[in-house]
Amino acid sequence: MRAYIPDYQIVSPNSLAAALALLQREPDIWKPFAGGTDLMVLLESGNLPHRNYIDIWNLAELRGVNINDSHVTLGALTTYTEVQSYDVLGQEFPMLLQAASETGGLAIQNRGTLGGNIVNASPAADSPPALLAYDAELELTCATGARWVPYYTFHTGYKQMDLRANKLQTRIRLPRHSQANLHYYHKVGTRKAQAISKVCFAATARLSGDRLDEVRLAFGSVAPIPLRCVKTEARLRGHQLDQSLIEEAIAELRTEITPIDDIRSTQNYRLRVAQNLLIDFLTSTA
Amino acid sequence: MPNTREIQLQVNGDVRRVTVFPMARLLDVLREDLKLTGTKEGCGEGECGACTVLIDGQIVNSCLIPIAQVNGAEITTIEGIAREQDLHAVQQAFIDHGGAQCGICTPGMVIAAVNLLERKPNPTEADIRNGLAGNLCRCTGYMKIFESVVQACKK
To answer: Which residue of A210, B22, B42, B84 shows the fewest CB atoms closer than 10 Å?
Structure first.
């Protein structure tokens, strides 16, 4: 049943500092509200238990892109539409561009944000695997300061993350000048537009001759969190890419992911598709 | 009433003020407070595109927008697409080529097509399919809609 709208409060502070001050003062009362593409779905179905929100959508401090020698840094409110508009992302981080273009339809891409996708913490989200494979870092900010954390340690359990209630996830940065020459992103869903993934896979690596280095593999929808598969990466890293290495990697992957049956797919299908995607990544490079 | 807020919007070129609960959906404010019932509700969860409107020139699902987020914004609904008696080329093409059947998806479909042609006056087939990918239709099988947009591009 629909939520009772008068029960809900949403306030719109006019600066990041004001939003952080409110979160600092009453951290358990308020939660951030960005593009609304996840929260409003819960509201409509009567499944939005939290009542008080800080509207951060119009905070200019959380928008825009900054490029320097070492990093591309994106505001947490960068929308999927904006991701597709930056040439530097298309050239250096093509999987992020592809993820953005395959998330929802245009109306969703105009409102959905990278930071919202991260903090909503759905294991089925499409941009987190790409961000994990590019070794992204997240800036977490509270009224008294900010710190950067590696993204791959951020999700700690289903919908759980390393983000205290007084903090906002404010920026995302991607290290540049990676030597990776392979970028592989594939989303498997019911249809191309709108559908939520059954399995999503993002992988980068540097292949020199037959040798694989800088391997980073990340999956969506096969674990309680968007998962970086560090054990499978370790199997591959520094080794010669051949059939026996692929078989070893697949065996490792089977132990590292924990897909489940749910409304979108089954454990068995996801396990098979995840293996096939890894095989496709490793064999399509040859 | 406690908790309500005054919101000012520019809707189809007119300044409108409403006093509403801040989490009220833009869709409901348009239909119930402003009596602009051309915008339809389909799924209510951002999947079908029936409630598509333009905010500051970008298409959005109005079922996913709390009214507090659009204070001061410029909204265009299906009622703002025709210029007085002159239909937009997309609307005329939908009539001429059978792009509308039951009509529920039509306002959202037209808004998405108008926005597509504003961004890409000469869209490819893939552009059209992608531009309308967030709008579901359960009558036409899409081909008549697709042909309507192709014809609208020629005008």
So the answer is: B84
